[in-house]
Specification:
The chain is mostly beta strands. The protein has strands at about 5, 10-15, 20-25, 30-40, 45-50, 55-60, 65-70, 75-80, 90-100, 110-115, 120-124. Helix content is about 0%, strand content about 60%. β5 (about 45-50) and β6 (about 55-60) form a beta hairpin.
């Protein structure tokens, strides 16, 4: 069973920084893309940043030049360094990963996995 476990959320003042981590564990053959999403009450989950297995990153415009996504492939972990935080960054942040796992027949199947979410609150 594959699990994504997040850590690093919390309360910070505007202008501050936080670093989120998300570690994948279980029977994993390989991990393709990894990313971070966020959601506020009453709104759809929003893509924040993604990173490929080769390290290529992409960001939503609202976090460019403030957030940095990275990954440690050896540890199956993705990070989100969040700098110059704003109150509008307040949300529950979820990590996501496309993970290839062996099925019953030993054939790898790629599925989407999600973390449990971690609250980030930025006070003004």
């Amino acid at each position: 069973q594959v699990q994504l476990v997040e850590s690093g959320g919390g309360l910070v003042q505007a202008g501050g920084s936080l670093r989120l981590s998300c570690a994948a564990s279980g029977t994993i053959f390989s991990i393709n893309g990894m990313g971070w999403y966020r959601q506020t009450p009453g709104k759809q989950r929003e893509l924040v940043a993604t990173v490929t297995s080769g390290g290529s990153a992409d960001y939503v415009d609202s976090v460019k030049d403030r957030f940095i996504i990275s990954r440690d492939n050896a540890k199956n972990t993705v990070f989100l360094q969040m700098n110059s935080l704003k109150p509008e960054d307040t949300a529950v942040y979820y990590c996501n990963a496309e993970i290839a796992v062996p099925n019953y027949y030993g054939v790898d199947e790629v599925s989407d996995f999600w973390g449990q979410g971690t609250q980030v609150t930025v006070s003004s």
